[in-house]
Design a protein that fits this description.
With 740 residues, the chain is α/β, with parallel strands linked by helices. The chain contains 32 helices and eleven strands. Among the domains are: 145 residues, Rossmann fold (3-Layer(aba) Sandwich); 150 residues, Toll/interleukin-1 receptor homology (TIR) domain (Rossmann fold, 3-Layer(aba) Sandwich); 117 residues, Tetratricopeptide repeat domain (Serine Threonine Protein Phosphatase 5, Tetratricopeptide repeat, Alpha Horseshoe); 58 residues, no CATH class. The chain has a six-stranded mixed sheet with strand order 1-3-2-4-5-6, with helices on both faces. A five-stranded parallel sheet has the order 8-7-9-10-11, with helices on both faces. The chain starts with a strand and ends with a helix.
Length: 740
């Protein structure tokens, strides 16, 4: 095991939030540069990783390192999920056991359910590449998550300012477990709970610690020395540098106390330290304390701390919040998640509560940060937060002294709606979102008209999605229309790229509603308006996101025109999307971009076959199948294997149109084999329906009654829970009847 870190500008890792990045060894060269860049763009943290992920490792050392982390990030590919390796089987498993927040960043599409199935979790996952323009962008999701888990620089300084005093913990690196035990011994005494302890978090080969040690000495009032026989080994760093620094400062300034503590575990048979040898090796060392005599040890520490300038704290809820964060994140104290939870709960329940503590408790239960993940408890604490902000909001602050409680109340209601939606409580999620919308519309004096407009439009979009999911299409359309009207006004008045993109998304959502209503003409008109906006955005700034957005709306227009029977126009839109996806695939070289390109090839090939351009259709779909096959071979992703099966089915149909039945049969058989394997491995209703469909297609092609019977049997099995498949079963029966 070889731990290394990366920080902004490759600065010192000390004092920065610690993030552990794990991936499949074969993804290392691709994943580490990408994900590290993403993380450092949003957080001033230290990203740690094992530079030798396939080498032998010390299990205790690995677990101790992960224990110190504030966040565990998994770069997830198909290889990560479906092959055995340490990152998945040891590191991820241990992080989950220790309630360290885990953020899976998916490098491929279609792995969300698979990740939670394989790891037996229900974690929030983040797709690094988001192809749906209506989805929240990756950077926005990542930024929000990191802010909910990691403590930023400004807050970390406030935490450090809250400590009563600082202790410098000196120990040999080989005695790390003893040093950690000494930290726990000190903090077990409630009187010392608010005392910070500085110690070397990780040993990085070749790093000069002298400057960092001198800085730590400057603010420390107590030098705690972890004593074991290893301190007697000649010319060790404690003997050469750290103890002489402490002794000389004590002599010269008298503002540093020294307390040596002998550490040994009798159950493990640890050897004792020779006190005479210690005295001769460490000139003027004070009397040695024994870890197994807690009364004497606590008195020695208390006496020492009372002799230094120990700051008194106010004991407020906010102070407890800061100290709770310190223990949760290991900011100048050891990580102690139970103590952190107790302090944060106390701060949140105080008669004068610390709202930040309540917010942190929501994040902890939502992200499994120091506690077991519990949506029920996250919702419970979010309700408390809403009540706290509502109380402040209703005190009637004037616009000049509003302190933002209206905005905080509105955003707390919005998050409560999101949590309820995630928990499956749609009616209450809708009620909370509507309450948040009502509050938002009252905040013009507090935040200004434009900010109110943006928040109102955002909430209208949320309500549109909630009503759409509840299949209340009229209400969904009503809220999407309100959102569109606001974004249209903002786009006219401000003309910013953000306002125009937001407007294009609202138009697209309304187009989706119109298409759901079978109003293809209106859907087309709305999509065309969205297209015009996205063309302007892509021309002004041709970044990959703008071009993906443009490709997505071109594809939807192609779908509309194909459904209308205007195949020439459909080919034009599919062709435009294809060219955009081709360039994106060449530029980014990601599996997702290649998959998007292959899907566009299939769509254009499908419409070209309908137009009578069958040989061109074959060439397009053959190219798509090659891409799907390469993606599937390289990743073993079920999603890419499904796309390969679908591409083979389309290609088989095109071969059949050319009367090249041998090639068509070969494609159908490959598709059947793929669908059977996927249904065996992941026997969902969708996978079984898709298997029945390919059985039907092949049976129809080959006039194979046995294959048609297999299709019928699968659909009949699905009917009790999925009556929507009845039309497919009826078609299979009609075909069998016709052949008899």
């Amino acid at each position: 095991m070889k731990l290394q870190y990366i920080t902004r500008g490759m600065g010192d890792a000390r004092g920065k939030p610690r993030v552990f990045l794990a991936c499949h060894p074969e993804d290392r060269d691709r994943a580490i540069p990408l994900i590290v860049e993403d993380l450092l763009r949003h957080a001033n943290c230290a990203v740690w990783y094992d530079a030798e992920p396939t080498a032998e490792y010390d299990d205790r050392e690995l677990r101790a390192a992960i224990d110190e982390m504030q966040l565990f990030v998994a770069a997830v590919s198909s290889k990560f999920l479906y092959t055995d390796h340490r990152a998945r089987d040891v590191e991820l498993k241990y992080a989950l056991e220790r309630h360290i927040p885990v953020l899976p960043i998916l490098l491929e599409s279609g792995l969300s359910r698979e990740f939670n199935r394989v790891t037996d979790t229900k974690l929030q996952v983040v797709y690094r590449t988001v192809s749906d323009p209506t989805a929240t962008p990756y950077d926005e999701v990542l930024d929000t998550y990191l802010k909910s888990v990691l403590v930023g620089d400004e807050l970390a300084e406030k935490v450090r300012d809250a400590f009563d005093a600082y202790v410098f913990l000196s120990y040999r690196k080989k005695d790390r477990r003893h040093a950690q035990r000494l930290m726990h011994l000190i903090h077990e005494n409630k009187s010392f709970r608010d005392i910070a302890i500085w110690y070397d978090e990780f040993l990085v080969p070749g790093e000069d610690y002298n400057d960092a040690i001198r800085d730590a000495f400057e603010k420390s009032g107590l030098f705690a020395l972890a004593v074991t026989p290893s301190l007697l080994e000649p010319e060790n760093y404690v003997m050469r540098v750290e103890f002489p620094l402490a002794r000389d400062r004590r002599k010269e300034k008298g503002d540093l106390e020294i307390v040596p503590v002998e550490l040994y575990e009798t159950a493990l048979g640890d050897p004792r330290t020779d006190p005479e040898a210690l005295q001769s090796s460490y000139d003027e060392i004070p009397p040695l304390q024994d870890e197994h005599r807690p009364t004497e040890l606590n008195k020695a520490l208390l006496d020492a701390l009372n002799r230094i300038s120990r700051r008194e704290n106010d004991g407020s809820a906010r102070h407890r919040f800061f100290i709770g964060l310190a223990y949760l994140c290991g900011i100048d104290v050891e990580v102690n998640r139970d103590r952190a939870l107790s302090l944060l709960e106390s701060a949140a329940r105080d008669p004068n509560p610390c709202f930040d503590a309540t917010e942190k408790l929501v994040d902890m239960y939502r992200n499994a940060d120091g506690v077991a993940r519990s949506m029920e408890k996250a919702i419970e604490w979010q309700r408390v937060l809403c009540a706290q902000y509502r109380t402040e909001y209703e005190k009637g602050h004037s616009p000049d002294e509003h302190l933002g409680f209206g905005t905080r109340y509105q955003r707390a209601l919005t998050l409560l709606s999101d949590l309820l939606r995630e928990a499956g409580n749609a009616p209450e999620a809708i009620a909370c979102a509507e309450k948040a919308l009502a509050v938002s519309r009252t905040l013009t004096d507090e935040v200004g008209a434009r900010e109110v407009d943006r928040d109102t439009a955002m909430l209208c979009n949320r309500l549109g999605g909630l009503y759409r999911d509840a299949r209340k299409i009229d209400r969904a359309e009503e809220y999407y229309r309100q959102s569109m009207d606001i974004y249209a006004r903002l786009a006219r008045e401000m003309g910013t790229a953000r306002a125009r993109r937001d407007l294009s998304v609202s138009l697209e959502r309304l187009g989706d509603i119109a298409r759901k209503r079978k109003d293809l003409q209106r859907a087309q008109a709305l999509y065309i308006q969205a297209l015009e906006l996205r063309q302007g955005l892509a021309e002004a700034d041709p970044n990959s996101r703008a071009r993906r957005d443009l490709s997505a709306i071109r594809t939807k227009l192609g779908n509309i025109k194909k459904a209308q029977g205007d195949y020439d126009a459909a080919a034009g839109d599919y062709g435009a999307a294809l060219e955009l996806d081709r360039v994106l695939a060449e530029e980014t070289r990601t599996w997702q971009a290649k998959d998007d390109y292959a899907i566009s090839l299939v769509k254009l090939g499908d419409v070209q076959r309908t137009r009578g351009q069958t040989r061109e259709a074959v060439e397009l779909q053959r190219k798509a199948v090659e891409i799907f096959r390469k993606n599937a071979d390289e990743t073993d992703s079920p999603e890419y294997r499904k796309h390969l099966a679908a591409g083979l089915e389309k290609l088989a149909k095109s071969w059949d149109c050319l009367w090249l039945r041998e090639q068509a049969e070969q494609c159908y058989r490959q598709a059947v084999s793929l669908r059977e394997a996927i249904a065996r491995e992941h026997p969902s209703s969708v996978a079984r329906h898709e298997l029945a469909t390919v059985y039907f297609l092949f049976a129809d092609f080959a006039r194979d009654a046995d294959m048609m019977q297999r299709a019928l049997g699968l659909w009949e099995e699905l009917l009790p829970r999925h009556p929507e498949y009845r039309v497919y079963a009826d078609n299979a029966r009609r075909m069998l009847s016709k052949w008899q």
